[in-house]
Design a protein that fits this description.
CATH superfamily: Gcn5-related N-acetyltransferase (GNAT)
Helix content: 25-40%
CATH topology: Aminopeptidase
CATH architecture: 3-Layer(aba) Sandwich
Order of helices and strands: EHHEEEHEHEHHEH
Distance between the termini: 34 Å
Radius of gyration: 15 Å
Number of helices: 7
Largest sheet: 7 strands, mixed
Structural class: alpha+beta
Shape: globular
Number of domains: 1
């Protein structure tokens, strides 16, 4: 079942994010990796900055989480993580499908350029890359992240975002 996460879920969210984020170790630039990947203080800051977490729960246990954050005229998909043992079972797809129903705003997601599996996940669910120049502009407009992270990230958008800009071109994938 998918449900809104509460303050009581912070420890579980922290555990899921940091366990699943180990996939980034050795993949993203070494200067962007830290342990824990998301300290509790950073998680609390994200929540206080407007990230609403939703969780996929089974048997009373959270298996995955995904955040939604309204910013200006869009909503950002933030901090999407599924426990390693529960990946490739539809948990992330169900969470993303649910979050899509919660807003009529265009959706944007930023991820590491080197995280090919995350990029493919979002492409599979109807998002497409916006291109390098637009990525830099959007990351600076909607996210509060260091310049180094801007340099090493990509942004993907849903069809609402492209339609709002009059772009009806066929989706294009990032180079493999």
């Amino acid at each position: 079942m998918i449900r809104a996460c509460t303050e009581a879920d912070l420890d579980a969210i922290y555990a899921i994010v940091n366990e699943a984020a180990t996939a980034y170790k050795g993949v993203i630039p070494a200067d962007r990796w830290k342990e824990p990947y998301m300290p509790m203080a950073e998680l609390a800051h994200e929540v206080s900055s407007g990230v609403s977490f939703w969780g996929y729960e089974e048997g009373g246990r959270l298996l995955g989480v995904m955040g939604l954050q309204p910013v200006q005229d869009v909503c950002l998909i933030r901090h999407a993580y599924v426990l390693t043992s529960c990946q490739k079972q539809g948990v992330g797809g169900r969470l993303l499908a649910h979050l899509k129903t919660l807003t009529s705003r265009p959706l944007l997601v930023g991820t590491w350029a080197a995280a090919w599996w995350a990029i493919r996940f979002y492409e599979k669910h109807g998002f497409r890359p916006v291109g390098p120049e637009e990525t830099r502009r959007l990351l600076r407009q909607y996210w509060t992240i260091p310049d180094r992270q801007v340099e090493t990230s990509v942004v993907l958008a849903d069809e609402r975002w492209f339609r709002a800009r009059g772009d009806t071109a066929a989706p294009t994938a990032l180079p493999r």
